[in-house]
Write a structure and sequence with these properties.
There is one protein chain. Helices cover 48% and strands 12% of the residues. It is α/β, with parallel strands linked by helices and 466 residues long. It has a domain of 243 residues: Rossmann fold. A seven-stranded mixed β-sheet has the order 1-2-10-7-8-9-11. Helix 10 links the parallel strand 8 and strand 9.
C-alpha cells in the first residue's frame, strides 16, 4: 500500500458537496490558485458545483427559449477545473484506487479510456497527483480535446473511429496492459464506481439543495419531477438514483443519439454528440432504476449549439423572441454539444409528461463551447454560415417544436432487456461473472456502492492526518 505521506489528497465527497467544510486556509489557497495557477494540485479543492460564495452553478432556462412552461434548470460545469464536471469523477476514481493501495505514483502508469471529458479530467487529475498518465481517445474527437490533454501533461493515444467506437478503446487498453502488466493500471470510467459515487452523492445532493433554493425564489415546489441525462459512462445519471430516494415519484430519463440508439432498440452507429452514446450499456448504469429512454439527433445538437454561441443566434433570440439578454450571454458561455442534447431531452420530457409551471426538470451541461470551435467551423463549412433567418428557423424547429418521437417508457420487460445488454460487453469481453451481473438486479447492490461514500471520506481524512 502507498504510504499516506506519498499521497496527494483532495476533498472528501462531503467537501465537494459543501466546500465551506474545507479547512478555510486550504479553501482560500485553492480559490486564489484557480486563476493564478490552475495546474497547482491545490485546485483539487475547487472540484465542486459551488462558487467562492457557496452559490450553485446553475441557470433557469427562459420559457422564450425552451417553448415549454415547465422550468428547465441546468447545472453547468464550465467553472470546474478543466471546464467539465468529469474532473470530479476522475478524482473520485483515482483517490479511491490510491487510498486502498491499487495504484502507486512511484510504480504505475494510469490509463484513462475516454471519448473526451473523462480523459481530459484524467490528464489533469492524474498529473496533479504525480501519476504518469495516458489518455486514450477516438481519433475523430475534437482537436480541442487533444490539445487540453497534452496541456495538462498527459500522453495521448488515438484509436480508430468516433464517439461510439468504445470497443476499440477497450482493445487498446488490453494491448497496453498486456505489454506491461506490472506497470499499467486502467481506470475505466465505464466500470469503476468512484464515477458513480461522485454523481450519486455530490451531484445528486446538490440538486436536492438547489430544489429548495429554487422554491424560495418562487420556482417550483421544492421538488424535482425529472432528471434528464444522456449516458456516456453513465456517471452523471447516477444523480437520479439519489433524487429518486428523496422523491420516490421522481423520473430518471436517459438520452441517446438517434444515430446510435443502443438502449432504445439495440442499435449501433457513428454520431457526433461528443461525450455520450458509446454503443454499450455501462457497468455502473443502474438501468433498473431508469424510467424512460429518449433519442436526440446529433445534427440538431450541433446546430443548436451554433445558435447559442454565434452572434446571429444571439440577436435573433433577443430581438425577435424576447429571450433575456443576460440568459443569452450565460447560455453562450456554458453550453457544449451534449448540453444541447440534454436540454432537448428535457424539453421532450416536459412535453411528453405534460409538466407545467411548477414542475422543475433538472439536467446538466457537461462542458462548454471552448472545446467545440473546430466542430462549429466544420458545421459552417458543411451547411454555410448561419444568418438571422436560419437562426430563427433553428430556434423554432429544434427547440420550440422538438418532436415527441424516439421515446420509450420503461416497463419491467424493457428494464430487463436494458440490463441484459450488459452481458455482451462485460461478461463476454471484460471478464465480469454472471453472478456479478445478476447481482445488479437487486437494489441492495446499488445501496452498498452508495454507502461506501462514508468509508472513502473516512480514509481521506485518515490519510491527511498521518
Amino acid at each position: 500500500m502507498v504510504s499516506p505521506k506519498q499521497l496527494i489528497t483532495g476533498p472528501t465527497f462531503e467537501e465537494m458537496l459543501h466546500p465551506d467544510k474545507i479547512d478555510p486556509q486550504v479553501r482560500q489557497q485553492a480559490l486564489e490558485a484557480k486563476e493564478k495557477d490552475p495546474l497547482d494540485p491545490i485546485n483539487l479543492y475547487n472540484i465542486t458545483w459551488r462558487n467562492a460564495e457557496g452559490k450553485i452553478y446553475y441557470e433557469v432556462l427562459p420559457q422564450e427559449f425552451t417553448g415549454v412552461e415547465a422550468p428547465i434548470v441546468c447545472l453547468y460545469s464550465k467553472d470546474f477545473p478543466t471546464g467539465s464536471h468529469k474532473v470530479g469523477a476522475t478524482y473520485s476514481v483515482l483517490i479511491e484506487k490510491e487510498l486502498f493501495g491499487e495504484v502507486d505514483p512511484s510504480k504505475h502508469t494510469l490509463i484513462w479510456p475516454s471519448t473526451g471529458n473523462y480523459g481530459i479530467g484524467g490528464a489533469w487529475v492524474g498529473c496533479r497527483m504525480n501519476f504518469d498518465s495516458i489518455v486514450i481517445l477516438p481519433e475523430e474527437m475534437s482537436q480541442e480535446r487533444f490539445d487540453l490533454v497534452r496541456s495538462y501533461g498527459a500522453r495521448l493515444v488515438l484509436t480508430p473511429g468516433c464517439e461510439s467506437n468504445v470497443k476499440e478503446i477497450y482493445d487498446k487498453c488490453r494491448e497496453l496492459k498486456r505489454a506491461d502488466p506490472e506497470r499499467i493500471r486502467i481506470l475505466n470510467q465505464f466500470e469503476v464506481f468512484g464515477n458513480y459515487r461522485f454523481h450519486y452523492y455530490v451531484t445528486g445532493n446538490t440538486i436536492i439543495e438547489l430544489a429548495r433554493e429554487l422554491e424560495e425564489k418562487g420556482i417550483g415546489n421544492g421538488k424535482v419531477v425529472a432528471f434528464v441525462s444522456a449516458m456516456g459512462s453513465a456517471g452523471t445519471i447516477a444523480a437520479g438514483d439519489r433524487l429518486k430516494q428523496e422523491w420516490p415519484e421522481h423520473l430518471i430519463i436517459g438520452l441517446e443519439p438517434i444515430q446510435c440508439p443502443t438502449i432504445y432498440w439495440n442499435g449501433y452507429g457513428g454520431h457526433d454528440i461528443q461525450g455520450i452514446g458509446d454503443k454499450h450499456v455501462t457497468w455502473i448504469h443502474n438501468v433498473m432504476n431508469m424510467d424512460a429512454i429518449m433519442c436526440i439527433d446529433d445534427i440538431e445538437c450541433k446546430k443548436g449549439l451554433q445558435l447559442l454561441t454565434e452572434e446571429a443566434g444571439w440577436k435573433t433570440m433577443v430581438n425577435r423572441y424576447g429571450v433575456p439578454e443576460e440568459s443569452v450571454q450565460l447560455m453562450a458561455e456554458t453550453f457544449g454539444i451534449s448540453g444541447v442534447c440534454n436540454v432537448l431531452g428535457a424539453i421532450k420530457t416536459a412535453k411528453y409528461y405534460g409538466f407545467g409551471p411548477h414542475d422543475v426538470i433538472v439536467t446538466v451541461l457537461t462542458d462548454a463551447i471552448d472545446r467545440y470551435h473546430s466542430v462549429m467551423e466544420q458545421l459552417t463549412a458543411t451547411y454555410g454560415p448561419m444568418d438571422e433567418t436560419e437562426a430563427a428557423v433553428r430556434l423554432v424547429s429544434i427547440f420550440h417544436n422538438q418532436k415527441l418521437d424516439w421515446i420509450k417508457e420503461a416497463t419491467r420487460d424493457l428494464r430487463n432487456q436494458w440490463h441484459n445488454l450488459k452481458y455482451y460487453t462485460w461478461v463476454e469481453q471484460q471478464g465480469k461473472s454472471i453472478e456479478e451481473l445478476n447481482a445488479q438486479r437487486n437494489p441492495d447492490y446499488w445501496l452498498r456502492e452508495q454507502e461506501k461514500v462514508a468509508e472513502i471520506d473516512a480514509a481521506i481524512r485518515a490519510a491527511r492526518s498521518d
